[in-house]
Amino acid sequence: MSDEWERDCLHWRGRTLTGQHKHWCDEWDGLPVDETCPEWPCGCALPQPPEDAR
Questions:
Q1: How far apart are CA 14 and CA 44, in angstroms?
Q2: What angle (nearest 5°) sits at the alpha carbon of residue 40, between those of residues 16 and 28?
Q3: Which of 14, 22, 25, 53 can pair with 49 through a Cys bridge, CB separation 3.0 to 4.6 Å?
Q4: For residues 19 and 46, which has the higher predicted lDDT (pLDDT)?
Q5: Is 5:13 a contact under the CB 8 Å cutoff?
Q6: CA 35 from centroid of its chain's CA atoms
Q7: What SS3 string covers 7-29?
Q8: Which residues contact 45 (CB under 8 A, 6 or more apart)?
Q9: Termini Cα distance of the chain
Q10: What Cα–Cα distance (Å) separates residue 10 from each residue in 1, 42, 43, 49, 52?
Q11: In whole angstroms, what is the distance from residue 11 CA to residue 41 CA?
Q12: Non-local CB neighbours of 40 within 8 Å, separated by 6+ positions
């Protein structure tokens, strides 16, 4: 993503989020979110396959 992404992640998370589902989450007021965050899964998250299909 962009430099803006890196700055937001460092500001709010203290690290850069690099997960497959990284995005600015509208559900969390634009907070950077990915599958490594406590806010996951969020309402705008991509559907996850069933556990036995992973």
A1: 23
A2: 80
A3: 53
A4: 19
A5: no
A6: 6
A7: HHHHHHHCCCCCCCCCEEEHHHC
A8: 21, 35
A9: 26
A10: 13, 20, 23, 30, 34
A11: 21
A12: 21, 33, 34
- For residue 31, which phi and psi values (nearest 5 degrees)? -65, 140
pLDDT value of position 46: 58
Mean pLDDT of the chain: 85
- Residue 50 pairs in a beta bridge with none
Alpha-carbon gap, residue 39 to 54, rounded angstroms: 21
- Rounded to whole angstroms, how far apart are CA atoms 54 and 10? 30
CA atoms 38, 15, 23, 12: torsion sign: positive
